[in-house]
Amino acid sequence: MKRFEYKARDAKTGKFVKGAIQAETERAAGKLLIEQGFTPEKIIEEDDGGIFARFQNKIKGKDKNVFTRQFATLIGAGLPLSNSLRVISEQTENKAMRKLIEALLADVEAGRTLTEACQKYPDVFNNLYIALLRAGEASGTLDLSLVRLADQNEKDEQMMSDIRGALTYPAIILLVILAVLIFMVVVVVPQVEDLYNDLGKELPWATAFLVGVSKFIMEQWYVVLVITAVAIWFLVQFAKTDVGQRWLAIFKLNVPLFKGLFLRLYNVRFAKTCQNLLSTGVSIQDSLRISGESVGNIMVFEQIEIVMNKVKQGKPLSESMKERSYILPLIPQMASIGEQSGKIDEMLGKAAKVYENELDEQIRTISKLIEPILMVVMALLVGFIVIAVLMPIYAIVSDVQS
């Protein structure tokens, strides 16, 4: 949809008003204004500012979470749907998000449900969001559904932020190591080679190896850049394929030090999503399917598909989840208690809380472990280069003394 700025006369008051509206064409925008009781005087398509402006105003998870939380507050306060959207639109600073809200407002005022309006933007509103909206509208508890969505999205964002934070320090250390290595190989090692050439002596094997690396980097730097760029492009494209996604999923679930962290993250997402869906009246089959899709790992999703098929055949949820390699034991145990008490959603939420706490603790543990590991790696690499540089110098000093 396009965004149009307009100037129109209000049919009730006779006053001129200015604003913006979302529509496919200028003609469609004029029709919408007339339906809303305005007489259009001027309708102009808004300039999007080019590719850089679109990139800067991309809708982020934080923008969606703020929208969801504000929306829940206004709906819970008794404000009508269209009025709530209009108020949020006026307060939203991100242009892309504001355009989206205005598009939702136009659809709602045209007679569509909020769920139908949001379904047109799958890149922003995923299956979980749509399912909870549909359940909330059907049961008259839209504000509660929006609160659940905001809570889950904010918690998920916080978990990912903690994981990124744990990986930031190692990334910085690796960059420092790389910079030190490049400096030593490109600047220091060639000077040692020149010294040995002047004396007519043969370089030690370690120094000769570094000299070869140094010459290759300095003489074939463009080849290194091209190979690096091609490799990165290939990996990015490969990760988008089904095979690439499967390999990446397997890697995350088996990489040393991090596999337990990722497994708990996926189980928290699964249990929490399933809890929210079941609590709003979504069927167990749909809850499992949407929860599996929200996990973000194809290997875990395939395990949940097996659970879905077993439940479809009439087996209890707890029994269907047992002995699944990527579903942690506490989830089927709590589901079994929930089946007996009639509170499966509540029990799944408690399981998710336990694994959330374990995940937080594991993130802190990994942060503490990575530092000494990187220090050892850095010491070994820099130590090898220092030895390669000092060995020939000591050899020269020994020859002079003798």
CATH superfamily of the largest domain: Type II secretion system (T2SS), domain F
Helix content: over 70%
Estimate nothing, just give the exact number of structural domains.
Answer: 2
Number of helices: 17
Number of strands: 3
Distance between the ends: 85 Å
What would you call the shape? flat
What is the CATH top level name of the largest domain? Mainly Alpha
Sheet with the most strands?
3 strands, antiparallel
Q: Would you kindly provide a written description of the structure presented here, covering whatever features stand out?
A:
The structure is a single chain. The chain is 76% helix and 6% strand. The protein has 402 residues and is mainly α. It has two domains: 45 residues; 239 residues, Type II secretion system (T2SS), domain F (Receptor-associated Protein), CATH 1.20.81.30. Helix 11 packs across helix 12. The chain is flat and about 105 Å long. About 2% of the residues have low confidence.
Which labels suit this protein?
76% helix; single chain; 2 domains; 17 helices
